[in-house]
């Protein structure tokens, strides 16, 4: 398990800072810092830095293999985020679905797409032993 003193860091491209801030704040992420060339967020307890780099935007993103997100251990929190995304009309890349139905690793998941075509996955495993 991760200790409290460790924070995962992810850097991704963005094409425009204002729309990036708007998207991630509507997702419930707190803006930590803003510079002329990047914004940093508290992304559910981890650090996501969006670097202004419009020429690096993936024009045709695909779910696999490149995406990132959160695996919830509390179904209520998963449901709350899903409702917030729907309420704020955040763009879904993939609506909620069940993967590996009937198997031990069965989970529910949905994907959002940010303004720079970065794909974000949010999921919840019914069997918590399958988190890793």
From TrEMBL:
Gene3D superfamilies: 2,3-Dihydroxybiphenyl 1,2-Dioxygenase, domain 1
Domain VOC: 6-125
Protein origin, superkingdom: Bacteria
Protein name in UniProt: VOC family protein
UniProt organism field: Halalkalibacter suaedae
